[in-house]
Amino acid sequence: RRDRTLQVQVIRFAGSRRMVVSRDISQLERLENMRRDFVANVSHEMRTPLTVVGGFLETLTDGLDDFSREDVLHFLKLASEQSTRMQRLIEDLLALSALETGAPAALEEEVDVQELMRAVTRETEILSGGRHSVNLVLEGGGALLGSRKELHSAFSNLASNAVRYTPAGGHIELGWRIDGEGGEYWVKDDGIGVDPEHIPRLTERFYRVDRGRSRETGGTGLGLAIVKHILTRHQGELAVSSEPGKGSRFAMRFPAARLRRDSARPPRRST
Ligand code: ADP
């Protein structure tokens, strides 16, 4: 049972008549706490790289002549990595805020799934840089109705996580299938896996099983939060199964209403 916070207000009328109004503000309080945590997290995430960049600049300004050209280049490279990290964080934050405030994605674009899967597979191979075997399984085709940009981003997110949480030499499978209920996109890896107790929280903003590992591999902790919002906007659902040390399977399921099967493609409307 949750504790409740009640806000009580007494309204007095002329004479001795009074009215007591009480309002349950537990939900408001919870939202306010979440907002506060979020701001604290963002500030912390930004401060770390800024401290590193600031420190390098100060060291170089204080004694440029004490360092060899190689040292200076090394500093600059590290500073540039931190600035890329901040940029990625800001891009993810902006994407998240646009998704949170936007209306549900209109059924506006017909996104050819096989085409999208091929593009995501190519990107995954590039990201992996030959360290993993990446294969594509297509058990059906058709199109998804929605935002091409958002769907691409959600598909890529799961694939890039597989690369980042699978050690070199591992296998990554990207797949798409259609059944009676709708369509499913899945990404399977034989990487580090996730303990089932963490699974329900993975889509929370900044929730990471291993902060160090996520940072090292370029994670912002916002990827799955973005995926979840995109899925909600497309009436889709995320399904995760995983075993630590064995690997994971992240899947997105889309309802039939979001699918346009090849054979059922209606003629183009003319205006
Ligand atoms: P991050 O930028 O940290 O990867 P995400 O929101 O994309 O943030 O993922 C949240 C957390 O979920 C990750 O930090 C990681 O602990 C876990 N995770 C996501 N995908 C995988 C995967 N394929 N294998 C193992 N752990 C994963």
UniProtKB/TrEMBL annotation:
It is found in: Cell inner membrane. The keyword Transferase applies. Its main location: membrane. GO terms for molecular function: ATP binding; phosphoprotein phosphatase activity; phosphorelay sensor kinase activity. One of its GO terms (biological process) is cellular response to phosphate starvation. It is a multi-pass membrane protein. Residues 253-271 are annotated as: Disordered. Its EC number is 2.7.13.3. It catalyses: ATP + protein L-histidine = ADP + protein N-phospho-L-histidine. Residues 41-258 form the Histidine kinase domain. GO terms for cellular component: plasma membrane. It is an enzyme of class 2 (transferase). Keywords: ATP-binding, Cell membrane, Kinase, Membrane, Nucleotide-binding, Phosphoprotein, Transferase, Transmembrane, Transmembrane helix, Transport, Two-component regulatory system. This is histidine kinase. It comes from Thauera propionica. The chain holds residues 177 to 447 of 458 of the full protein.
